[in-house]
Each structure stands twice: as C-alpha cells, then as structure tokens.
Design brief:
single chain, VOC_core, 8-stranded mixed β-sheet, about 130 residues, 2,3-Dihydroxybiphenyl 1,2-Dioxygenase, domain 1, 8 strands, alpha+beta, Glyas_Fos-R_dOase_dom, 2 helices
C-alpha cells in the first residue's frame, strides 16, 4: 500500500518572482516569505485554513499551473512513483532533485498534473 499524503500545497510557476511577490504581498495582502534553495529565490505562505501556496520562477512550466503537490511526509518517493507506474499512471517527471528535497510529477486519469514532494532528510525508498 502506498503511503498516504498528509498535506498538499498549491504550486505556481511564474515568469517574474519579484512581480509575483509584490502582487501577492502588497495587492492581495498575503504574507509570502522568501525561501532559499532555488534561484533567484522562491516564495511560500500559508492561508488561514492551512493550505500552503508556493511560487517558483521557472521557464517552461508556466501555464500548466497551479499544480497540486502532495507531501510524502515519511519518505519513500521512489517507491510511490514506482507503484504509480506499475498501476499504469503516466509519470511526467521522474523523481528529481527539488528545493529542499525530491519531487516527481504525474497525471491523473483526466490528464490533470499532480506532483509529489518529500524532504531531503527522508529516505527515498522505504523498502
């Protein structure tokens, strides 16, 4: 059985992180904080009901977001991706290094992009 995700974040890929920071902080009044681990930096914040929103400046993925990303809290991302592939799930991006950990992207049956992320200090395999 696959480990159950314990929380999810909505991730946006944007063309100008500084413009995004100004809009969400100054226009919408959200409290996004600058984070290190991606260049130039990335933004994160938590809405009142606990949903985390994350912004990365990135070419190529814009327009395919926001993306729902599930946090694999206990690790085992390699096992999860392998199990999804065995069940016929389309893996878009295999496990790769991501800010603070590891990530992978896949499609649901209707073609919606979903992602997985786990912290770097957790084991990639639980087997």
């Amino acid at each position: 059985m696959l480990p159950k995700p314990h929380r999810a974040s909505i991730v946006f890929y944007v063309s100008d992180i500084n413009r995004t920071e100004a809009f969400y902080n100054e226009v919408l009044g959200l409290d996004l904080a600058r984070q290190e681990g991606a260049e130039p930096f990335w933004l994160s914040g938590t809405l009142d009901h606990g949903l985390e929103i994350i912004f990365f400046e990135m070419e190529g993925k814009r327009g395919n977001t926001p993306a729902l990303v599930f946090d694999i809290t206990d690790g085992g991302i390699d096992d999860v991706v392998a199990a999804l592939a065995e069940k016929g799930v389309t893996i878009v991006t295999p496990v790769a290094e991501a800010p603070g950990g590891w990530s992978a992207d896949f499609l649901d049956p209707d073609g919606f992009g979903l992602g997985l992320w786990q912290a770097a200090d957790k084991p990639r395999s639980l087997k």
